[in-house]
Write a structure and sequence with these properties.
Blueprint lengths: L4 H10 L4 H62 L10 H13 L16 H4 L46 H32 L1
Helix pairs in contact: 1-2, 2-5
Pfam family, one: Tetraspanin
Membrane topology: Multi-pass membrane protein
InterPro entries: Tetraspanin/Peripherin, Tetraspanin_EC2_sf
Length: about 200
Amino acid sequence: MVVEAPVLYRVITTAGVGPVLYRVITMVVEAPVLYRVITTAGFIVLAVIFILLQGVTIGLWLSVRTKADLWLRGKMLDLLKNYAGPEATDSTSNGWNILFMKARCCGVNAQYENGGTNDDFTELPTTWTPSGTDKLPASCCQGASTSTVSTYVSSSTCTQTPSNFYTEGCYSRVKHYIDTYSLVTIIAAGSGIMVELLETKF
């Protein structure tokens, strides 16, 4: 049973305990209420700070995205300069060949786009340059794999024409993968903000 404050005061003063003890008792009685007020206010402050930090993080990511895209394209072009061909065994060339075949792309930018003559291997140029009748590396041919790529060298149906090759540049493919995973991160962060807002509200 909860005793009302005026009644409690009369009981204490009648007993001769005095108003000092009354104040102490009322402080003890009201302490849980005060604690709840303080902890609720603290939670709200921390939640607001956390939400602001998440918002700043997303804003910074969006602001540097364009610069990051330019940096990525530039780095890929620098690496492609050291490409030595579809049958080269060095790590750089091997990495590019695997990327061409697995990601189904060729070079960094789109190759021979819209029937044009532009290709990264000639324009950079790369260590491997179109020689003889081959205009593109055999690893850019559709259907080529690590075990069959040599059969596509000097192919009249791919590297010589060129035709039946992956026209999309690897930059756009890599950027697509990065954007996909970045979108997942943004959705997760946004969901976290919504949950915190709801928890703060209720």
